[in-house]
Amino acid sequence: MDRRPSLESLEEQLRCPVCLEVFSEPLMLQCGHSYCRACVRSMTMDPLGQLQCPVCRCSVDGDCPPPNVTLARIVDALRELSQPDGAPSESCPKHHNPLSLYCEEDQAVICGLCGSIGAHRAHKVTPISSVYSRMKEDISCLMTDFQSERRKLEEKICKMAYNKSRITNESDVLKWVVRKEFGELRRCVELEEAGFMQRVESRAAALIASIQSQADHMAQLLARFQEAEGTLEALSNESHLAFITVSVAGFKECQQRQQREERVFSSINFNPGFNHNDIKISVWKRLHRRVLPAPEHLKLDPLTAHPMLKLSEDHTSVECGALLNRLPNNPERFSYSYCILTSRGFSSGKHYWEVQVGAKPKWRLGLIKGTTSRKAKLPKSPEGGVWLIGAKEGRLYEAFNTPRVTLPLTTQPARLGVFLDYEKGELTFYNADSPDELGFIYSFQAELQGKVYPLLDVCWHERGANKHPIKLPQPQQHS
């Protein structure tokens, strides 16, 4: 008799009446009929916990129906018989029954007898098929998690590779900038060196030429002395009268010639016009302008201008007018002092800008905190959030510190440079008239917080005597 039809017939007998599938975790009701665990859980129970058997329509207790261990074993045996020939079949080493159950507490595979009369009785047991399905789902979830983690790792690796390439490119660019900047510094130092060398060589050449000229004169004088010696030797053979006559005339001529020649000779010292300390100072002054940050592109903010001020169309020049402009009294605008701010402020970093005051006899410029009031008289002190230097009468300069400091400037600067190191709290003013070097004027030590703005105080026009504008020179664009 063929085996396959018998297995198929047995499989038909072992199907759940509800889901019509081979029993999975079969539970037996009080009426004797068995159903899959999931099918029993899907049945409707009344408030007393009773449910109606789908086959015999009897009311039975649906709370905790016991597992049908025998039926579960038969189902497992059917599955083992349905395996292809040669498939492994494992059995319990103690009871020699198929390993068809899984003990949830001990996490071990057991046979039916181990679960009913053996060491695992009263433990929660589950058919292997259900555990297999559950573990397959767990493995599937793990695979999904692994794939997700793998994708995340691949994305991170790609980002790291991108960052590596970006850092390499940025470092190459920075190295190019470093080489360029130091190349310019070296060229500047080389130009300074060439200038000092030329001064030394030209001065030495002039002195050597002067010494050579004097040496030539001495050689000529020496030749004359030799000639006079020969004349004296010739006179030694003359008569007494001739000897006396020629000797007196000759001696007087030699004496007069010697007096004339002595006035030509002078002592010469080598003085190039500088000493070795001047070299370092000169180079430092010239390099100082180069090592400062590039000048800022600043424009004046018309919203902050006092109503008496007149701005140029490009907002780079301001002067005090004669008439009061009708302007809105917005919070940013100065109402008392004749001041204006730039449109951009600073809250970090290093910044350098220049201001052109020309021959204006009275002015003030510097830095102001953004929170300082602009509706009252300008508090010209660091305590008021303002750091200024200024001029009056065209010759008196002062720094508005506490107390005020008179600045001993010997020349009237027409162009001033301002350097701000926000983190160090340093605000330094320079004479920027020379395109090659900066002359130090004054430095504030300030505790800065929040935003600060460059400030220009053009002062009252003094009936035209102080009408000169103040300008913000725009840095040249380098290609």
Blueprint (SSEs and pairs):
Layout: H1 3-13, E1 26-28, E2 34-36, H2 37-42, E3 50-52, E4 59-61, H3 69-82, E5 101-103, E6 108-110, H4 112-116, E7 125-127, H5 128-235, H6 240-262, H7 276-291, E8 309-311, E9 317-320, E10 339-341, E11 350-356, E12 363-369, E13 386-392, E14 396-399, E15 405-407, E16 415-421, E17 426-431, E18 439-445, E19 452-457, E20 470-471
Antiparallel strand pairs: 1-2, 3-4, 5-6, 5-7, 8-9, 9-20, 10-19, 11-16, 12-13, 12-19, 13-14, 14-15, 16-17, 17-18
Helix pairs in contact: 5-6, 5-7
Structural commentary:
There is one protein chain. With about 475 residues, this protein is of the alpha+beta class. About 40% of the residues lie in helices and about 20% in strands. It has 7 helices and 20 strands. The chain has a 6-stranded antiparallel beta sheet with strand order 10-19-12-13-14-15, with no helix packed on it. The protein has a 4-stranded antiparallel beta sheet with strand order 11-16-17-18, with no helix packed on it. The chain has a 3-stranded antiparallel beta sheet with strand order 6-5-7. The chain is elongated, with a radius of gyration of 54 Å. The relative contact order is 0.07. The model has no long low-confidence stretch (mean pLDDT about 85). One of its GO terms (molecular function) is zinc ion binding. Keywords: Metal-binding, Zinc, Zinc-finger.
